[in-house]
Every structure is written in C-alpha cells, then in structure tokens.
Design goal:
Distance between the termini: 46 Å
Oligomer: single chain
Strand order of the largest sheet: 5-6-1-7-8
Order of helices and strands: EHEEHHEHEEHEHHEHHHHHEHEEHEEH
Helix content: 25-40%
Strand content: 15-25%
Radius of gyration: 24 Å
Mean pLDDT: 89
Largest sheet: 5 strands, mixed
Number of strands: 13
Structural class: alpha+beta
Shape: globular
Amino acid sequence: MLALIDCNSFYCSCERLFRPSLEGRPVVVLSNNDGCVIARSDEAKALGIAMGAPYFQCRDLIREKNVAVFSSNYALYGDLSMRVMDSLRQLMGAGNVEVYSVDEAFVSLQNLPENELENLAINIRQTVETWTGIKVSIGIAKTKVLCKVANRLAKKNKEKSGCIYILNTNAETREALSQTEVGEIWGIGYRYAEKMRQLGIESALTLSQMPLEWARKNMGGVVGQRLIRELNGDPCLTMKDPLEKKQMIGTSRMFGKPVYALQDVREAVATYTARAAEKLRRQQSAAAFLEVYLVTAADNRFTYHPKRHSLSVRLPKPSALTNELISYAMPLVETLFRDGPKYLKAGILLGGLVPEETIQGNLFAKDPKAQLKQLMLAVDNINFSQGNEMVKYAASGLERSWKMRQELISPRYTTRWKELFEVR
C-alpha cells in the first residue's frame, strides 16, 4: 500500500500559520508579479474565486468579501515544506518517502497490516500538524493514481472523512472511482478529458473498465495503458529513490515589469544562473550543457503569443562553479538580445549533469579550482544560514528594477532574523 500526504491549501496554510486571526477568513495567494490566483482557502473557494483567475478580475469580490491577499512568499513556503517533509522522513524513514512536489509526498506502507492503516494515518496527520502547524490530508491505496483519487475524496468533505480516505477493498475502490470525474484523474489533462467525454467516458470507473488495447490507441500508448492498470490496482508507477538526482536544473522568472535594456537582462540571467548553480552543487553534480532563453512579447503593445529565443553552449569541462557558468551565459545573452522588443522573462537551463566526483582531474598537478570550490561552499553556507543572496556576484546587480513584483508579500518568518515573528 501507498499513502499520499498532501498539505491542505498549502500556501494559504503557510500564511495563516503566523496569523491565527486569518483562521476562518478567506485567503488567496497570487502568482509571480501578483498576476493570478494560485492558492485558495476553502472559504475563498466557496466564494467562487477560481483557480488561475487574474487578480484584477476578482479584485472587487476580494474587497467586498474581505479576502486576505498575499503575494507568493517562496522563502516561507519552501522552508515550511522542508519541515513537513522532514517530519514525514522522521516518522516513516527517509527511504520510504518520495517528495512529489512542494506540498505532496508519497509514502510506502509495505508490510503494514490493513487493520493498522487508519491508526497510522491519524498519527501522521496529527504529528505533522503538531510539529509544523500545517494540516494535511491523506489518501491510501494500492497505486499512486488511486492514492490521488483517495486524497481528493479526503479533501472533498474534510469533516466527514477526517482528512483521511482509505481504499482497502475492490468495493471501496469502485465507489471512489464512480465519484471521480474523468477530468479529475491524475495524468488526464484538459484536452484528454474533453476527448474522453466525447467518447462517452465521464467517470474514472468507466475509464478503468476500458481495454488496454483501447488505451494504447487512444491515450498515448504505454502511458495510457499504465494509467488504466493503476486505476485497477496494478502498480506501474513505482516509488522513486529519494536520493535520485535531477537530470536537468533550471531557474526562470517573469520580470516585475517589461524590460528593454541589455544590462537588466544580463543581471537577471546572472541571478538565475547563480541560483541554478547552487541547486547543482546541492546535489553534488556538475553541468556540461548550458542554455539561456529570453521571452519577448509579440510586439511592444501586447504580451499575447510571447516568443521564446534561446541559445546553448556545451562546456569544455562540466562545472558547478557560479563564476564559470555566468561567464558562459553572458555571451549568449549578448548574442540573443536585440534593441526594441519588450522582454517579459528570462531563464537558464543546466543539462548534461554528471556527478561532481567523476570529473577527471590532473594526476600531476593540484586542482586549479580547489580554492574556488571552497569559496562556493562558503558562499552556499552563508546564504543558507543568513538568507538567500546574502553574498552574490556583482553581475547579478544591486538595484534590480526588473525583479519580480511582490507588493503584498508577508514577512519571511522562518528564514530572516529581521522578520522573525514577534510575540507580545
């Protein structure tokens, strides 16, 4: 058996954690640059505020209903996510936990008797909330797809389910699938959902009864067949190794306002390169491939149909040094940049990742980059303990007029000494 632990309205829960007065009040969190609604509390959902709705379109309703609004506070959310995941690892063992996203984790329950599943789920839910302050919902089933179904039902009626839903028998699974609309199945996107409905498939139960050969022809081959098998309790999506390293690392952001100057684009790409390099070192890898991309508006009046422009370079030798990666990224920026267009976004991708210890050295000479590697380690430790970008390269800029707009951001209560929560 597997369990999916999913934090309830995670971003909103993080904002409420240090503001108890928000309990029971509608809360929404906005996307980058305060553009769209990306998280809603149950109370906000009840008001009809849609996920992904542009902020300007629902601003009047938000004011009328006294909805609390926050800009995305990724430093706070990332730290609280780490606390939740560390709690799960401590409870279940690190090797049994697969972090799926910032607010979700799969947990292996192998060899656990069926009559102990509910008590374990209750213990996990209560312990995580006690240790972190974050409430979670738990779905338990034989496969990952069924865990998603169970978790959705656990959240659908929290009072009735106690935020726990277990699919232990075939009858329970059939009932759950019959309550799940085809578009709510994990792995079924909007287009596939429309296609399924046109074919007369409205529920997960109906889909689960389709032949595997039909799935191969109509649902993308092996991927569709796996989905059908998962719905029928046949595990196809195994637990991933928690120590598995990423094969590609990237960082990108929309600009806080349209950018026209080369220097602003250079600063942004240098900043994102430094962040990607830090992620690279965190998993003890080095990159052999670097890509820079810029996104421009179709013309200077509108931002619809943006265009992506990219260039890449293969490094002579894999590297995880920020200064080296920036030195390769900057010429690409200068080649890509053109005067006139409105730049909306920039990003960096690092690929060809290899373990850092496998990079071949020189048997007859000291490593010329040994001191730089020690410098990177020191910078990472300072930034981790004292705050992101406490130490940074000058190429990243100081003023940063291009930085992401966050006009409604809350304090970073857990990662900044000056913003610690005060008790009076």
